[in-house]
Design goal:
Elements lengths: L1 H131 L1
């Protein structure tokens, strides 16, 4: 009888242990699924980080290129402004010289008119003297 009780006791204990094993297997499967999910999320995070780093590097390259372009354009603008200033100075100088030349031409024209008037007076005076003689 004692053996039967021991056997029953062992069977009950075995049944409890089987249930515990089954619960542990279920827990293990759940943890395995969670582990896979976390691993997938981690892989996606790593891929996202890698893409972000690549994107950041590309943005930095573009920024450097744009900065170089901006610097080149600024230098070109400064050169163009300097060239424009020189052209304006030359234009002012040319305009002044043109005005001076115009003033000289008008002065010479006035002088020519005066000389022509003087010549006519002298011609009339000469004709008057010839008539009087």
């Amino acid at each position: 009888m004692q053996y039967l009780q021991q056997i029953q006791h062992n069977e009950v204990h075995e049944h409890r242990l089987s249930e515990n094993i089954q619960r542990l297997k279920t827990t293990l499967e759940e943890l395995t699924v969670q582990k896979k999910g976390i691993k997938m999320q981690l892989d996606m995070d790593v891929e996202g980080r890698d893409r972000w780093l690549q994107s950041k590097a590309e943005v930095e390259r573009r920024k450097e290129t744009l900065q170089k372009t901006a610097d080149a354009l600024r230098q070109s603008l400064r050169d163009t402004e300097e060239h424009n200033r020189k052209m304006q100075d030359e234009s002012k100088t040319g305009a002044d010289e043109f005005r001076q030349l115009g003033d000289k031409v008008y002065a010479l024209m006035d002088q020519l008119r005066q000389n022509q008037m003087e010549l006519r007076k002298q011609e009339h005076a000469g004709k008057d003297k010839q008539k009087n003689n």
